[in-house]
Design brief:
about 475 residues; alpha/beta; Rossmann fold; Immunoglobulin-like; eight-stranded mixed sheet; 11 helices; 20 strands; flat
């Protein structure tokens, strides 16, 4: 029997099933992280979904040794992702960005004639210095004349055999995970290649590590369509990317993909922090200080290095991703090895006045107060997250009713679906209560419009406890 009656011709019983009353809302993600940064390997300006730090190293390569020398631009993406997963992240959407000078490593292969001429370039699959460690060799079997091209990168080894350049490089393009063939002319396909062990590098790779706000903006645009809840910019401070991040947050909110950005100040210096604080006053921006100590796997011995506040921001963002939207960051611990500066109580008070999320030393390292840079109603981060979750719940609940009848029965079903989502938030202590009405005048019915009016009462966290002791 059909669920919807289209025609009744033959005598009988016809049943139409109206399922609006069963529409519900699936789980809403609140802890997906998005990050942009520079790396030595991996696709550029492409979103990569990661579930572990090991996946990040495979995709983007290890970071380089930390350097604070003038003009140094340490690679930021893998190092930031290391802090994200150390802090408890589970789902990360990552984009490798790059500045000028980005280049792929190339090897120039020539023919075996008396006057050798270039036949083809082998080019690393992705740009960057990672491919400098690939050893390329070409050998010729003295009996059969068959040629073998070998590629080795650590324990990874690839071998391709053929009787001429065309056969070898068809196999490379079909099966190599390391390199691709470029500039092979049809007239060169039958040539014999010159044996070389190893084949020298013709063009050295470059990472484009001096990436600033413009490159970050490109990466942020790619994350705009992803289900990201919390945003981090690797290695760059709020002074570098405030305009780009604020524009991204505005665009994604207008598009129904709300998120919060967690950024670092330029340094732990109070004067610079005051300047950074003046750049933003937004309920979707959290500003973190000071920096952190962290192990540097790329340095000899792997000792601790002083990382700027942008990496502390990654730890805070990761901690936020592990918490339900109603759970405050206030007094929560972070997985730092140390802080680059321990603020005095007076300095902490000054920083809180400038809407800075301060890390402090207290039974480990903890967040002093979970606040955004907003001086108004959304000062507590939890308020912003709860309302964003409520907006997404309302959006999902209502979207299922688009195209259905605009009558009292369907509007009652819509109200029941919305109420179900809000009741769940009340039970989870995200809301302490709500008012909800779904209405439509006759004119609105004709226009296809149903009006939903929601009044939400979010839960606030305890930031202060005042104790009065009367002695007698």
């Amino acid at each position: 029997m059909s669920e919807t009656i289209t025609e009744m011709v033959l005598p009988g019983t016809y049943i139409e099933v109206r399922a609006e009353g069963l529409i519900g809302v699936s789980g809403i993600a609140t802890g997906n992280l998005g990050v942009v940064g520079t790396a030595a390997r991996g696709p550029v300006n492409e979103v990569v979904l990661l579930g572990s730090y090991a996946e990040a190293v495979d995709a983007f390569g290890p970071y380089d040794a930390w350097s604070t020398a003038a003009g140094a631009h340490p690679l930021s993406l893998t190092r930031t992702i290391e802090q994200l997963f150390r802090g408890g992240a589970s789902t990360v959407y990552a984009v490798r960005i790059a500045g000028s000078g980005l280049a792929a490593t190339k090897w120039d292969l020539t023919d075996a004639g008396t006057t050798p001429a270039k036949v083809v370039f082998l080019e690393a699959k992705t740009p960057g210095t990672w491919a400098e460690n690939i050893v390329v060799s070409l050998s010729v079997d003295s009996t059969s004349g068959a040629q073998t091209l070998t590629l080795e990168l650590g324990k990874q080894k690839e071998t391709f055999t053929g009787d001429n350049a065309g056969e070898i490089f068809d196999a490379v393009n079909a099966g190599s995970a390391l390199v691709k063939v470029v500039d092979l002319k049809q007239t060169d396909r039958t040539k014999t290649l010159k044996a070389s062990n190893p084949v020298p590098i013709a063009v050295h790779g470059a990472n484009g590590e001096a990436a600033g706000g413009s490159a970050a903006d490109t990466g942020l645009k790619l994350l705009a369509s992803q289900p990201v809840n919390i945003l981090v910019v690797g290695g760059l401070s709020v002074a570098d990317v405030s305009a780009q991040v604020l524009g991204h947050l505005e665009d994604t909110e207008n598009d129904g993909r709300e998120r919060i950005a967690v950024l670092g100040t330029r340094s732990a210096d109070l004067a610079e922090i005051a300047s950074d604080s003046a750049l933003v006053g937004n309920p979707r921006v959290v500003l973190v200080a000071p920096g952190i100590f962290a192990a540097d796997a790329a340095s000899p011995g792997g000792g601790n290095v002083n990382l700027p506040p942008s990496y502390a921001a990654a730890l805070v963002a990761a901690k936020m991703s592990t918490l339900a939207s109603q759970v405050s960051l206030t007094n929560k611990d972070v997985a730092a090895a140390g802080l680059t500066r321990i603020y005095t109580r007076a300095e902490q008070k000054q920083l809180l006045g400038e809407r800075i999320l301060v890390l402090r030393q207290n039974l480990g390292f903890r967040i002093l107060k979970g606040i955004s840079t907003d001086p108004g109603a959304f000062g507590q981060i939890t308020t912003r997250r709860i309302i964003d979750e409520g907006k997404e719940a309302a959006r999902r609940s209502a979207s299922s009713y688009i195209g259905k009848l605009n009558n009292a029965r369907v509007r009652d079903a819509l109200r029941a679906t919305l109420a179900g989502s809000l009741n769940d938030m009340v039970v989870a202590e995200k809301l302490i209560g709500y008012d909800l009405a779904v209405t439509a005048t006759r004119e609105q019915e004709i226009a296809g419009k149903a009006l939903v009016t929601m009044t939400l009462q979010p839960t606030f966290s305890i930031d202060f406890i005042q104790i009065i002791m009367n002695l007698s």
